[in-house]
Amino acid sequence: MSTNVSKQKRDDLLQKIEQIRTFIATAPQDKNTGNLLTYLSELEKDVRGKKYGLIYEEHQEAIDEVLATHTPVLTEEPELLINNGGEMNFLLEGDNLAALRLLEKTHQGRIKMIYIDPPYNTANKDFAYDDTRIDLTDTFRHSKWLSFMRARLKLAQQLLSEDGIIFISIDDNEQADLKLLCDEIFQESNFFSQVIIQSNKRGQTYKQIAKTHEYLLIYTKSPEAEFNEIEKTDEDNDLNLLDSISSFNIRELRNRNPKFGRHNRPNLFYPVYVNPNRVDKDGFCPVSLQKDDFFTVEVLPYNSTGGESCWRWGKKLFIENCSGNTLMSNVVAKKKRGGSYNIYEKYRKSTYKAKSIWFETDVITEKGTVELGDLGLADRFPYPKPLYLIEKCLQIGTNSSDIVLDFFAGSGTTGHAVMRTNAKDKGHRRFILCTNNENNICRNVTYERIKRVIEQEDYAASLKYYCIDYVPISERLYYEYANELLKHIRELVELENGINFVGNAEIAIILTDEELDNFIGQLSENASCRKVYMGHDVLLDGKQAETLKCKKIAVHIIPDYYYKELEG
Asked: Which of 81-85, 339-343, 360-364, 456-460 has the lowest mean pLDDT?
């Protein structure tokens, strides 16, 4: 029987703590003994704490201190509005921890898919912590990265819908740490897969083993999440021998019955016939289970070593996928050397379950650089993720009207991929991108990419650009900053509902009684208005309510959680 040595040590330490507590309890009581008992309780709590998982030095960021004394708000940059119809999408410029705090108000439990490509912490100063670039000389580089990621992933978990899915790109530097961190935050039972991505066909080094891959960690919010099958690409659409994998081998039957042969095979096997006179451009012939004047050549099942075997598919499945009258059948035959035929399953425009290794040409990092270069932006962002990688995540993890979030938006590949996926399947997905503006990345890369893509492809998609600002709330009474927060409610309403109030006569927002009076008084000039968003503390009197009803204007109450900072 195994012995848990660590538990024995903990129990021994707890006994010693109890002995010290008993001794202190019998001594004269004063302030010092009270403090000692408190310290012992804290020690005991630590000893009884979590015994498996990540152990690291927790660090606090400067943004934590800012958020402790300020509340984040959104301010629109109206000159950056892109209004090209379709869905309204959003780009948030600022610290992504603050952005996630704001999204807590508007999108908690509503995000279907999150994709992030966080800094990999390669020790080549790719990761900045409090404006300091982390390198190998920082002995706490892993702890700082984990503290940084934990704060953001905890909020991300809250934003996911119950059937939500998160995809996280990472490489070897933090893959093991990230896996344990995600097991803690999303729960180990919600781990779905770790996909290997061939990011570099040639390899990133010239050492003995050239590193060619990175990873995609996939977690779900709960067991309710379902993954879609996806369409095969040309590279996925390889030809698979139906007869290369046997349910059992004929040799086994011969060992049991030496008289067994092709003429007395059991009903498990069945003859398959080829029409050798109909050959398509790839050299494939149609097949049939019925012999006639056209299907004349019988094909026997052989395994990969050339020995007799059995069909991998049963007769029912074969019939479902085989049609002797068309070359578009899933089952075809190709002539081998020597005149015999091999049977293949050949899917055309079909779907399949995504594999755990993605090696298509379109997932390599170099492809992302080429795509950014096609937009004239290649020199502005290093190592952008390729479109196909995100598109594949979207195909697996979203349906046509879902909301997608990327809070490490970088070059904006996620937004681009959402628009392209919508164009392909006529979907209505919306995206929210968050990134800081270090080196003008948000404005000159993320925003510029979305803008150029919409213009070049004429996508039916729109975008609002918000900057994150902060309103100080510590050492102030709520009524001293209430009016400041009210100025930023409009942006939250737009973000939550995917709408645009600016220049839109069909919707309106009312946050004060004075605004309500003005709105009612100008209704004759607002004949197009069909919906009004009203602050939860703005009250309609009977006459006003009747007026709105007669005008067929729907009233939506703005939720009070926008205003929690206003509570006295």
From this structure: 339-343
